[in-house]
Amino acid sequence: MSKKPVFYNCSRCPAYCCSYPRIIVGEKDLARLAKHHGIAIEEARRKFTKAGHEKGERVLRHKGDEHFGTVCRFLNRKTRRCMVYKARPAVCREFPGAGRCGYYDFLSFERNAQEDPDFISTTWNS
Ligand code: SF4
Ligand code: SF4
User: Fold this and answer.
1) Which of 19, 86, 92, 105 has the fewest CB atoms within 10 Å around its CB?
2) In sequence order, what are the residues at sequence separation of 6 or more whose Cβ sits closer than 8 angstroms to the Cβ of residue 82?
3) Tell me: the pLDDT tens digits for 63-86?
């Protein structure tokens, strides 16, 4: 079976998606993260997550970031790569879902327009 084409390149992106405030962590995600760090699930819940807007929802904690204000606590701010890639939550594995990433389309357009292959857009209105 042939693979569907992909029109984005995460290795050329400053990880805009990791700046989303609502990165939901389910129980399976939490168990995976806890195992990855060799700690108890409750400790992982406390350390890595905080309450989301929906009742009972837990989301990944953030930390400050020079480009996007805040980003997921697991993003390496220098390399712009996930530090828990193998143990990342399901929602991170599934994103962006289709063969396109809206932010990357926008970023590519701006990089071409500005003739700057390293340009980083800190805002994007989807
Ligand atoms: S914003 Fe899009 S291109 Fe950038 S890291 Fe996320 S999925 Fe990849
Ligand atoms: S867990 Fe990794 S992929 Fe998911 S938001 Fe955080 S840094 Fe990004």
Assistant:
1) 86
2) 15, 18, 72, 74, 75, 76, 88, 92
3) 999 999 999 999 999 999 999 999
| Residue nearest ligand 2's atom 5 by CA | 18
- The alpha carbon of 84 and the centre of ligand 2 are apart by a number of angstroms equal to 7
For ligand 1, pick from 9, 13, 71, 94 the residue to mutate: most ligand atoms within 8 Å of CB. 13
| Residue 22 backbone phi and psi in degrees, to 5 | -110, 80
Domain ranges across the chain: 19-99
AA identity, residue 105: D
- pLDDT, one tens digit per residue, over 18-44 is 999 999 999 999 999 999 999 999 999
Beta bridge mates, 75: 82
Residue 126 — pLDDT band, cuts 50, 70, 90?
low
pTM strictly above 0.90: yes
Q: Is the CB of 84 under 6 A from ligand 2?
A: yes
23 lines ligand 2 (CB under 6 A): yes
